[in-house]
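User: Hello! My lab partner asked me to get a predicted holo structure for this protein. The small molecule is NAP, SMILES included with the sequence. Please write out the structure tokens.
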Amino acid sequence: MRVAIFGATGPTGQFAVKEALEKGYYVTALVRSPEKLTKKDDKLQVEKVNIFKPEELEPHLKECDAVISCLGTPRQGFLGWSKVSFYTDTMKSIVSAMRKSNTKRLVCLTSIGTEKAPGNPWVVEWIFRPLLIGNILSNMAEMEHYLVDHCSDLSYTVVRPAGLEDGPSSGKDIQTEENQYVTGASIAMPRADVGKFVIDCVEKESWLQKIVAIGLLP
Ligand SMILES: NC(=O)c1ccc[n+]([C@@H]2O[C@H](COP(=O)([O-])OP(=O)(O)OC[C@H]3O[C@@H](n4cnc5c(N)ncnc54)[C@H](OP(=O)(O)O)[C@@H]3O)[C@@H](O)[C@H]2O)c1
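Assistant: Hello! Below are the structure tokens for the protein in complex with NAP.
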């Protein structure tokens, strides 16, 4: 199994790379700053690409059985009001390259609470959405709709993690729910657990063409 990982230099992406290598997968990390990926492994190939240029991605995806995206963009604009198109722009580029290279499996990250829903954690509805990252959540939701409405030819799984924190894996069972959030879960979870979940997802049939929230019970 060879997987391509976007966002491999990010804090969650680095855990995904580690998990994939530990599973014995070959990994192609497609990044804009190769110097940031300090991990060395015979099974790890690092390639510098422009994520917005599908023609640069396609040759690398040809060799891959699955594509994983841990891409993310920092908080942008006053009160999260400026327009964000990072998630849709990057996903459209990835999907275009996947189609040209005939790669079908995709696992990517958004977040809990991408859209308003009864029972969403209060901190998402009263703090994050109106004051901090409303623009990011809404572009994540657009990306989810793009995959559902326009990418039925792909075996995608969208993973919606709770808030991310650094540190080691919790060692707990990761809870899942096809919902905007996992009922009763803590508001945050380690990136290490998320990296493991996305890699474990690659070969799981149960989450094909699904959007799944993940979290940990307190
Ligand atoms: N923070 C939270 O509490 C939270 C909660 C739920 C979900 N999420 C989502 O989970 C995902 C992972 O989060 P994270 O904190 O681990 O990572 P992150 O810091 O959001 O993602 C950074 C990754 O994206 C890459 N990237 C950003 N802009 C790029 C560009 N223009 N071209 C190429 N690569 C680009 C970065 O590359 P460089 O290293 O080169 O900058 C890095 O590898 C994100 O989508 C995030 O929004 C976050």
